[in-house]
Amino acid sequence: MKSTLYSCVFLVLIFPAPAPQQPACKSQGHFAFNQLYKPGDIMLGGIFAANIVGITPELSFQSKPGHLDLHIFQRSVMMIFAIEEINKDPNLLPNITLGYRIYENCMNVEVALRAAMTLIAGLDDVITDYNCTGVPPVVAIVGDPLSIHSIAISRLLGLFRMPLVMYEPFINFYKVVCIMLINCDTFQVKAIVQILKHYNWTWVGIVGIDDDYGFYAIDSLNKEVKKFGCVSFSETFKVTDSAKLTDIAKVIKQSTATVIVAFLIKAAATVFVNEIAKHNITGKQWIASDSWSAFPMFASNEKFSIFGGTLGIAVRRGDIPNLDKFLLSTHPTSDPENNLINKLWEELFECRFPTNSTSSDLSGIKMCTGSEDIASTKTDYTDVTDLRTSYNVYKAVYSLAHSLHNLMTCEDGKGPFKNNTCADIKNFIDRLGKRFTYDKNGDAIPAYDIINWQRLEDGTMISKTIGVFDESPASGYQLSFREEDIFWNFVSRKVPDSVCSASCPAGTRKGEPICCFDCVPCAEGEISSKIDSTECIQCSLDFWSNHERTQCVVKEIEYLSYDDAMGGTLTMTALLGACLSICVFAVFMHYRNTPVVKANNSELSFLLLVSLTLCFLCSLCFIGQPSNVTCMLRHVMFGISFVLSISCILVKTIVVIMAFKATLPGNNMMKWFGVSQQRGTVFFFTFIQCLICIIWLVTTPPTPAKNSKYQNAKIIFECDLGSLTGFSCLLGYIGLNLPDTFNEAKFITFSMLIFCAVWITFIPAYISSPGKYTVAVEIFAILASSFGLLFAIFAPKCYIILLRPEQNTKKALMGR
């Protein structure tokens, strides 16, 4: 709420608030506030707590307040100190004296409301129904320390356009008007969330007091934690409900959450700590809200094993010069409007001042004389070593003073209105040189100390500042820790873990939900290199995940190599076939003049042996790492050499047929199919195959390619055929040249049967074989068909030539 405080103060000054015209009636009895008072030109009101109350008291107006809480009472005196300091400052509100009227709230919302109404109207017991006119007794109120009180008071003050300046954190859920906050509890939740994130505490329990403060703080923290973690349990309790406290203690003890966040006020913290100690719940890391984090005595003695090492959110500590002297100058007075000072004196020295109720019976009661020396006491009241909430009171009073100063020095035409406001000041510097900054809504830019409950060697409990949470732009919106100063109340003395599920190692990802999850292994081809990864990363095309799924490694490149057992076997087989062909060629060359060689057309036989040798050798192009040259050679060499072989067999078959028919009377066919025609036929068929190969290589030649579709973890390095049409034509032309009638002899017939069987079975085997086995099948088909032709046609001739030379005669040949 931009400029809320200044606008409200201005409106209070120019629009009269209620003032009684004449009394109408009086209430029965008399209710006297405990108060502190000093008149001034401008009056500031205050509503503070002062008494120790274990539980919220019943409002009967018949019981006396409890003992003073000296630590809390110091805050009300801090308001007086700030006002006195401002009155002495010639540069702030010059020629104006600030006064004050401070009431105690008795830790009861009804009393707090009555105090607020009294400060507004200036009346206590007088009741009127007349319209109010005149200047209100106070222009602003500092307090109340309890959120539930502040909500009720703010609604009441909103009707009278009077600002309420808070010095305690406050959940501004209702968006009430005319409130200026010192620190909003929303920021406290932010600080706690930052601590949880800093230590990766994703499994958290939450406990709170069952009131507006606890409810909305827990609700806010629940929403924030669920963005990065999970809440194990969320419980609230009333201070008077002991059964609920017992149930909560059991829940905490059974929970696997190590970290527990507690939004409590001091009275609630007292009963809560005792209940936890009764159940001896150890092994928990507590995070205390700022309403009770400043009281490390909760972890004293036997409770240290439970609450020692507690982390807490606390308002920033401040050092105020001369405050200690001011507190020591406190002295009782006979003024009834300052009866709280007398109560302080009675508390410090355990004595009583005479009153109407005690004057009749003074036996056994130590009477206060006023001559007691407050400097001889060592209490929380005079302790200025750890000013936190009291320092906020100091800042609240200065905020009011600067707003009043701004209004009173405002020039004409620059009032607190929409177009010409002079109240739009978002920061000021106090007399100590500290800058206080507010946002556009009038909320103070938060800054918290992170404290740690520790025990000194003498057994004294302290709250040691070990970090800072500061959301101001100057600090960079940061949370900082001095890790070496933190005491962890665990056996390991290390930062505890608070997770529902253990961290997922590299190679896995976190499943659902975000906290209590299973670690899901990354799929093949995916990795996670960090702990607690939420997703696995897909490896790039040429990479694959290692066995642990922690990094992408280069895929294994697979091809039929010479080092491979299968590749080596096929290589040896191909070389053996080539050697046999050469040997047969040598035998035929040596016995070229014998009848067996001459009878089988020696020229075609030699050409057939050369082509078979090339068939065996071309299979070597299929082995080894594919390259542009080998990819083109392997199929072209095979296609041409095998067509040459089949063409030779075809011509030999035709020659046999012609020779057979030439024996018939009047048949002169051999003269039409002589040696030249035989050569021309072989050349023609081979030329057609060469032409097909040239067209294939020119249009879409085969090239080396990496294929990953057969095995994801491997790259099959193979030859891409380019055009399937070209490859099909090459194979089809080989089959087209087969002799359609095998009536030369049983050897040619048998060789063609082998050829057909091999290449018919090749097609399904080629299609179904993955990776390098595809190449192996193709090589096997080439070698098998080549060996088939070699053995079927030439083995019988070699047998006769070498082992049965007596049959290698014209007579024997004609006899067969």
UniProtKB/TrEMBL annotation:
Compartments, record wording: Cell membrane
Keywords linked to the UniProt accession: Cell membrane, G-protein coupled receptor, Glycoprotein, Membrane, Receptor, Signal, Transducer, Transmembrane, Transmembrane helix
InterPro entries in UniProt: ANF_lig-bd_rcpt, GPCR_3, GPCR_3_9-Cys_dom, GPCR_3_9-Cys_sf, GPCR_3_C, GPCR_3_Ca_sens_rcpt-rel, GPCR_3_CS, GPCR_3_vmron_rcpt_2
Pfam families named among the record's database cross-references: 7tm_3 (PF00003), ANF_receptor (PF01094), NCD3G (PF07562)
Entries under Gene3D superfamilies matching the protein: 3.40.50.2300, GPCR, family 3, nine cysteines domain (2.10.50.30)
Domain G-protein coupled receptors family 3 profile: 566-816
Membrane topology reported for the UniProt record: Multi-pass membrane protein
Transmembrane segments: 570-592, 604-625, 637-660, 681-699, 715-735, 747-767, 779-802
MF terms in GO: G protein-coupled receptor activity
Matches recorded under PROSITE patterns: G_PROTEIN_RECEP_F3_3 (PS00981), G_PROTEIN_RECEP_F3_4 (PS50259)
Signal peptide from the UniProt entry: 1-19
Main location: membrane
GO cellular component labels: plasma membrane
SUPFAM superfamilies named in the record: Periplasmic binding protein-like I (SSF53822)
Entry-linked PANTHER family: C-FAMILY ODORANT RECEPTOR OLFCQ19-RELATED, CALCIUM-SENSING RECEPTOR-RELATED
Family affiliation: Belongs to the G-protein coupled receptor 3 family.
Protein name per its UniProtKB record: Extracellular calcium-sensing receptor-like
Protein source organism: Erpetoichthys calabaricus (Rope fish)
Species classification: Eukaryota, Metazoa, Chordata, Craniata, Vertebrata
